[in-house]
Each structure stands twice: as structure tokens, then as C-alpha cells.
Write a structure and sequence with these properties.
single chain; mainly alpha; 9 helices
Length: about 230
């Protein structure tokens, strides 16, 4: 993708995300509860801690992998493009798949978690100020494409199950490798980006499951009233 086209595309995404934030599906209360889950739930804390530890270990090999990538690319250009595009567009594709009885709950889950992913990812980027391998800027850690795509994969896993979730994680892995291939990120950036995306998706999944539970209970009560009235 040419640089000018990338810039235009990124601006279009920003405009779209601003419009998304204004929709009824994005709620400050939902976001606060989701963030609390990310840092308070045992499984999400373990995911983040594991990501930090593995990222720290990978940091020792960042420049070794970078040097090897200069002599021989780790993937083809076409596959790298797939990963690059998936990293910045997967949320739109995922939103478009929601169509069953839980569509609004799924939209709540996806939209709020992607907003938080953007805030946390870029907050860490500006806090760490790590140079990218290509020295284009100081927003290398963590990889936003990777956190975005692993969040998407986690949402697919929680909403549709492994049949859709596993291909989502494969695409997310391709995205992470493509960022290394394109000299936009080091291995450690990608590893923590993946952990961050999974942790956010897992934390917000608690809220999604709660909404589904409440909706099912409400439906059961309504069904009981209809059946009781009809029988009476």
C-alpha cells in the first residue's frame, strides 16, 4: 500500500471510529466495567503478565530476528499485505457478521472493546516511545495491528466458537508476522500486542456473557407469562 493511500485510509478509519464512539453501543459505563475486568479478573491479569514476560524474553532476540529479516523476508509480500489489511479492517468485517438475536449485545461487546484497545494501545505507545525498526516514528511498542487482530480473534472465538475463532487467530498471527516482515515492529512488540488484544477481549467477554444471561432470563419470563395466560 502506498504511503499516501495509507495516510488517507488511516484518516478514514479515524473518522469512522469517531462516528462509532457517538453511537448508542459505546457506553462509558460499559467501558469502565470492561477495563476493571481486564485488570481485576485472574485470567486477564495472567494473560497480560504472560505477555510481559514473553515480551521481555523476546526482547533479547529482537535485533537478531530483525537482521535475519533484512537478509531474507520471513513471508511473501502478498501474505504480508493480507496481514496488514486484516490488522486494520478486521473489526469492520466482524461487526458486519452480527445478525442473530444477540446482535446488539455482540455490538456492545465488539465496539466498546475495540475503543478500549485503541486507547490502551496508543497510551502505551506514547508512554514507551520506542523507535520502530524502520525509524519512521517512536510508536513501536506494542503493535496496534496485532492487538487489534488478536482482539478480533478473541471476539470471534467467544461469539461463534472455535470454528470461527481458530481461523481468526491464524489471521491475527499472520498480521503480527507481517508487522515484523515490514520492519514496523520487533518481535517483542508483536507478542505484547497479542496478549493485550486477548486480555481485552477476555475482559469484555464477561460483560457480554452477563448481557446474554439477562436477556435469556427476560425472554424466559415473557415466555412463561404468555404460556400461563394462554393456558389460563
Amino acid at each position: 500500500m502506498k504511503k499516501t493511500n495509507k495516510i488517507k485510509f488511516k484518516y478514514l478509519i479515524i473518522i469512522f471510529l469517531v462516528s462509532v464512539i457517538k453511537t448508542q453501543n459505546v457506553s462509558s459505563d460499559y467501558i469502565i466495567k470492561g477495563v476493571e475486568n481486564i485488570f481485576n479478573k485472574g485470567d486477564t491479569r495472567n494473560i497480560l503478565l504472560s505477555g510481559l514476560i514473553l515480551s521481555g524474553i523476546a526482547n533479547k532476540y529482537d535485533y537478531l530476528l530483525y537482521d535475519k529479516n533484512q537478509s531474507k523476508k520471513i513471508m511473501s509480500n502478498n501474505l504480508a499485505k493480507v496481514g496488514d489489511y486484516w490488522g486494520i479492517t478486521n473489526q469492520f468485517i466482524i461487526w458486519s457478521t452480527f445478525s442473530d438475536n444477540y446482535k446488539y449485545e455482540q455490538l456492545d461487546y465488539a465496539m466498546n472493546s475495540f475503543v478500549v484497545n485503541g486507547i490502551l494501545t496508543y497510551g502505551i505507545k506514547f508512554a514507551t516511545m520506542r523507535n520502530r525498526p524502520d525509524l519512521s516514528n517512536k510508536r513501536s511498542f506494542p503493535s496496534g495491528h496485532t492487538s487489534n487482530s488478536f482482539l478480533g480473534a478473541t471476539i470471534l472465538q467467544n461469539v461463534y466458537g472455535s470454528e470461527v475463532g481458530i481461523p481468526g487467530y491464524i489471521l491475527a498471527s499472520i498480521t503480527g508476522m507481517s508487522r515484523i516482515n515490514d520492519n514496523k515492529h520487533y518481535l517483542s512488540d508483536v507478542i505484547f500486542g497479542a496478549a493485550l488484544g486477548v486480555a481485552i477481549g477476555t475482559g469484555f467477554n464477561y460483560l457480554y456473557k452477563e448481557e446474554i444471561h439477562v436477556k435469556n432470563k427476560t425472554f424466559q419470563k415473557k415466555s412463561f407469562k404468555i404460556n400461563f395466560s394462554w393456558s389460563f
